[in-house]
Amino acid sequence: MTHSATPDVEAVIDASAKVQFEAFLDEHRIALGDSLEGLTEEQVRRSLVPSKTTLLGLVKHATFVERVWFDEAITCRSREELGLVVSPDESFDLDDHDTIASVRAAHAQACEASRQAVSALDLDDLLYGNRRGPLPLRWVYLHVLRELAQHCGQADILREQIVSGETS
User: Fold this and answer.
1) Domain boundaries, position 63
2) Residue 1 has pLDDT above 60, yes or no
3) What is the mean pLDDT of residues 117-144?
């Protein structure tokens, strides 16, 4: 798996905390999208665990995560208003129209919208659209980074199972 456009996180060592968070978020966003690279539509939909987790489902779920944390939390619009499913579990569901290209495009668009939504915010600015109540952007960055890191690990394992299953 290649991460050709991965940010150079070493280059932000002396940057502000916000720039550092954003570099690490982008590194994980790209890694998750890259987990689909070079695989077939059938492979990315393959269910290898008892849950709904598939490679394509992970990237679709990450799109939901971006929209919840950087759209719902900032704009205070409901998931219904945003056209989102209600629960995180539902965000893994794939339909016949979901393809590698469509899911990657939706994910890239959501990530760019997230970057735009927070561009004028500071880490200590409060976001009011989450059910937990007001949360500082710093907490949201940490939460999303933690979730993306977890999903990147899951994607690495699923991808390894898929690729090793094809060669054995």
Assistant:
1) 9-167
2) no
3) 97
In CATH, what number is assigned to the domain containing residue 110? 1.20.120.450
């779920």: which residue's tokens? 61
Q: Does the residue 32 lie in any domain? A: yes
> Model confidence at 33, in pLDDT bands (50, 70, 90)?
very high
Query: Is residue 4 a part of any domain in this protein?
Result: no
The predicted structure's pLDDT at residue 4: 45
User: Total structural domains in the chain?
Assistant: 1
Predicted confidence at residue 8, as pLDDT, reads 82
